Structure formats: C-alpha cells, structure tokens
Amino acid sequence: MFGYVKIYKPELKIKDYEAYKGVYCSLCKQIGKDYGQLARLTLNYDFTMLALTRLAFAERCCGFEDSRCSFNPMKKCLQCVNGGDELAFAAAAAMIMVYHKLCDDINDSSFFKALIKRIMRPFFSLKRNKAKKKFPQVDRIITAAMLEQSEVEKKSDAGIDASAHPSAFAMGKLLSYGFEGETASKLERFGYLAGRWVYLIDAFDDMYDDKKTSSYNVFNNIDKNEKEAEEYAEGVLNVTAAQLMREFDGLEPARFGDILENIVVDGMYNTVQTIKKERQNEKSV
pTM of this prediction? Predict the structure, then answer.
C-alpha cells in the first residue's frame, strides 16, 4: 500500500520540483539518522506526502539549504531547514507502517513465500519500537487502524466505505495531529480522503493478483464481471479524487501549495492511468 501519491512532473514548475525533491531527500536523511541506513530503503512517496503536507502548515518556515545525497555524495540536493519535527514525525510513521505491512503480508502468504519478510520482521520490529517511544501517538493511530482493517477484511460483505475507513481515518489523524482549530479539522478531512484514495488505488492495482490468490480485495467483492468491476473501481477513485480536490480548495497552506495541488489534481489521475496502461500491456503480451 505504498508509493501511489506522486507528483506529475510535466505539470510542475522547476522550482517546485526542486522543493519536492528537497523534502523527499530530507525525509530520507531523517529516516537514516533516526533508524539507520538500511531503513532508508523503505522511503516512498506516500510518506513524502505526509511530510510535505505537515510542513506546508507548520508555523515555522521550512526553507532549504544546499546539501549532498548520502548515497551519492557527488549528487547535489536540497535539505530542509527548520523541518526536523515534521520530518521526524513522518519518519516514525513510515517505520511503524512498514512493520505492520510486513506482518500483514506474512499473515496473507505461505511460509516460504514470506520467508524473506519473516527474516526482515525482527529488524523492523526494533525500528517500530524505537519510533513508538518517540511518537507513541503515531503508533496508537496506525496500530488501531491496522487491527480494525484486519477485522473488516474478515467480513465477506464489507463494502467500500467500511473497507476504506480504517486507512482513511488513520491518515486523517496523522495529518491533523498537533494542529488546532479549523486548520486541524480541514486537515483531518483532507487526510481522510487522501487515505481513502490510497486504500482504493492499492485495491485497484491489485485486483487481478488478489483474485488469483483469493486474497481480500474490496473490488473483487462486487457482483460484476472483470471489466465492469474495473470501470466501477475507476469511477469510485475519480469521485474520491474529486472530493479531495474540493477539500484542498478550502485549505490555506503557508507553503508548497502548488506542489500539493499538482499531486491532487494531476498526480493522482496520472497514477490511475499508469496502472491501466500497465494492465493493458500485460494483457497484450
């Protein structure tokens, strides 16, 4: 359930693209600093979105300074200034979520198919515990959501709203945590819809693989043939994205507004189209 919330580079100004890369690189460095170099391999666009959104509404201005990539010192990059608290928050969320995702994959797979993940689990269990000590509230939010998600998916008649709710609720709480008043309320609603979209796009992407393995997928529970189910799923994603756009219009970010708009308006649509193209290419082979 990772890496779907992306920018659409062709529609992004160069300065905004550099700023987005700066947040991405800064989060990568924060993960390495807090949880070790191997943990940096878990970095993905979804947690960059979490960091970017929280930085966009933080009181202190998040500027940038020139830096170097830790993996490739010859490569220049930007690094956030005064963004440490929000980056540490997103890094902790990433470690906790990765651990729970590993556990979920292990439970859904045979022993040998999940052997590598079983080997990885003790390492990420340590990272999760470290993140939990730093941000216990983040662990409570994610752990509760994962437990609720597991219970929902045991029900064969669970609908789209019920299935997407735990992930949506968790993202809403993560985005709004620490903010107050109207800003918190708007961020929670925005986060809820973003989390709903992430859950649904993951289900959309995995529809056919899940059907082959008899794994739970909310779109495979619909009484429709494959083509109709795919069209229905795309429609649900488009409606969720449209609701997300409306919520974004009501937000007033202090910075990174053009980047967030690019993600919501162009990035999400492009992700859906990319999945459809890849699926068509697979069918034509």
Answer: 0.92
